[in-house]
Amino acid sequence: MEKSPTEDPSNAGKTEQQGAENNVPKSGERPDQGTAPTNDHYRPDPQMDRDQSNIPAPDVANAKYLHPILAQPPEELTGLQLEERAKVAAGVTAVIKSMEFSWTEGGVNRGTRGLLKMNQKDGFDCSSCAWPDPDDHRSVAEFCENGAKATASDADDKAAGPEFFAKHSLAELSKMTDRDQNNAGRLTHPLVKRPGDNHYSPIEWSEAFQIIGRELNALDSPDEAVFYTSGKVPNEPAFLFQLFAKQFGTNNLPDCSNMCHESSGAALSPTLGLGKGSVTLNDIYEAEVILIIGQNPGTNHPRMLTALQKAKRNGAKIISVNPLLEAGLNHFKNPQDFMNPLKAIGALLGDGTQITDLFLQVRVDGDMALLRGIMKHLFEAEDLNPGQVVDHEFIAKYTTGFESFEQNIRNTSWEDIEELSGITRAQLLEAANMLATKKKIITCWAMGVTQQRQGVQTIQEIVNLQLMKGAIGKPGAGTCPVRGHSNVQGDRTMGVWEQPTKEFQDALAKEFNFKPPYEHGYDTVEAIKAMYKGKTKVFFSLGGNLLAAGPDTEVIAEGMRKQKLTVFVGTKLNRGHLTTGETSLLLPCFTHADVDMQRSGHQMTSCENSMGVVSQNKGVLVPLEGQMMSEVAILSGVAIATLGERTNIADWVAMTENYDVIRDHIARVIPGFDNFNEKLRRPGGFYLPNGPRERKFTTKNGMANFTTTELEKYTLEPDQLILMTVRSHDQFNTTIYDYNDRYRGVHGERRVLFMNREDMAERSIKAKDLIDITSHFKGEKRTVEKFVAVPYDIPRGNVSAYFPEANPLVPIASVAKVSNTPTSKYVVVTVEPTRKTVGAPLDIRLAVEA
């Protein structure tokens, strides 16, 4: 093995030749992953030390008149056209759209080079989703339409430089749509909005660092600062970000994970001992049955469809549970098939691969009842076939709590199950029959589950199902939370967490010779509350767009306005950069696709995907002209300017000049990262330790724990509906690429509300009518205006709208139990015709299929 580049600088940036891949597990085998990590238990009663005081509902409807800088997207309609919803995902259209975005944004040469190096073993990691890459062979085009859009946006050859910001005030920029803000071009120079200014103007990096240091050091307490992170940030800068915050003296490290998969971690840690999934990509191929719950892979994780297609061809059955029958849950045409002469004709003319064998159109928030219904059927089947359905041997050897769990499921009435889930007993029996005799079972879920009121408890029922079947810790079986942003899982591994364990802090203290804080800090919801109440004075965002990602948009905006300083590190303009503190800094950084040259040469970073594989990220595109810096260099500059003699300045300089120095630190602090620099240079990267994958459950009692949950009912007023927020197809996270949602048949508009036709008829609402939506929470009301009613195949009593447009309806105090995740998948609303003057007429070509 070559020496680490910290010992031999000539090895900086090098990777091993792509030859034999000894670390690649074969189908049906478990990867060589090293020693199991320490546990990551959540605090036992997390609600007790959170701020329970009330924040009054903001005047959402009139905010546009109260503040010249819009926190919400503008209400002007952009020209709705409706078509029938798609029944097939991907195909030729996806290929055409991928090329169109890539060549439009970055030009043919730049765009093509970016695509061909994305997700390759010697290239860079896609900056959108965290779906894993194949361990062995990777195709030339190892990307999906969404990844192509993300890379095209990163490769944009347009610049949003000082001239752009001199021309447009913050108020003018806020009246642009989110799409137009993103398409304005790459940020190229550090900018400042000084007190009283209404424009961003150029600033030297040295002064920007001095401003940050001065404002942070002027705080009465380090806890008056909030350090927010996006899941797009690679491991190395994420590690430095949490290190700086802790050396400064606070654990106020909220991140986007608090709003997406925090419920997964909160459910998995006490039950299995690790807040991550327990499967590999090869397990998907080996599974006999795959449950997909609360997830839309065709839009949010399109490369997952390739894995599901392979599983289907290997004989797997797929059960899909979702309020909407999404195109990706229906049929899939694999774009890779067009390059195979034997498959090209069929892929072009046929319907593709049928993904779902059984579709259960669950009511919003009804997944927990649905899971209980399946398990109740399984227990009844076990009564008729003793020892054939429930894996008693596994349960006796590896688990605790089975008897209480079993009694809880048996005692649940069929009436409650059917009422809450919206699924009949007969439909649930069909699902149970598909599972009854199978042992290789995988359950996948995403934000459709985690953002429910009982998201944590629903995931615990998923774990219960896996445990009763013994379907964990063996090939083809296990839990699979499908994460969103490229490194949202890795950021948590790197220590970006407001609840750090004592073991992690002790290791950090030993490595860097300082005393870190051990008290828990603010998560995202608590940070928003603290900012709103004036308890904080500095908000520092490393990537992301909290204003558009978080709940209660106008509460976040008011909190931002109360800060002395807001700092935004980013690649492109977004709405969150415009609602600012008294002073605001906008600092441009590199993307995953950019070449990062430092003193020791071409640097690489790393990301951890949804299945615990850490692989390299090495940019290939020359950055645009300007003064952009890497995230590592920016953080080092901030740390030196702020901490001074309180830190080891020479070490920060060394980490900036050679990122291998950062990785050597990580190797000594975080279990599983031993020999980090050497392992990262393996083609394809390496697997992190995963106890549940090996049936090593690092819970407090060393066992896998069944959970006895409480199935809560809810009551609604006669006119009330349940709203869930979703993404469109031309969107990833808060980044809007265009106004279209091709798979759902929506073109040219985002201010839409999907409604059941019968619910529309009851309210005398017709297709294309303009409506206002009001949310209701503990007597409070929030109203967004001028949405368009769209009839759709959605359960009675449920409606759906896109975020961030619908985020102002999500109350800051409405959170999931334990995880404190905003309940964006459970918002009580009423709908009525809009009373405002209507703008441009709508173009409706064809009614959406009901």
Automatic annotation (TrEMBL):
Kindly name one Pfam family recorded for this protein: Molydop_binding
Sequence ranges of Basic and acidic residues compositional bias: 40-52
Q: Which residue windows does the record flag with biased composition (Polar residues)?
A: 7-25
Select a single GO molecular function from the record's annotations and give it: molybdenum ion binding
Pinpoint the Molybdopterin dinucleotide-binding domain residues.
Answer: 721-827
Domain annotation Molybdopterin oxidoreductase: ranges: 186-567
Q: Where is this region: Disordered?
A: 1-58
Gene Ontology terms, cellular component aspect? membrane
Q: In its UniProt record, which GO terms are filed under biological process?
A: cellular respiration
Kindly list the cofactors needed.
Answer: Mo-bis(molybdopterin guanine dinucleotide); [4Fe-4S] cluster
- Sorted alphabetically, which keywords does the UniProt record give? 4Fe-4S, Iron, Iron-sulfur, Metal-binding, Molybdenum, Oxidoreductase
Q: Which PANTHER family match?
A: PROTEIN YDEP, RESPIRATORY NITRATE REDUCTASE
Q: Could you say which protein family the record assigns here?
A: Belongs to the prokaryotic molybdopterin-containing oxidoreductase family.
Q: What is this protein called?
A: FdhF/YdeP family oxidoreductase
Q: Which species is the source of this protein? A: Hymenobacter wooponensis
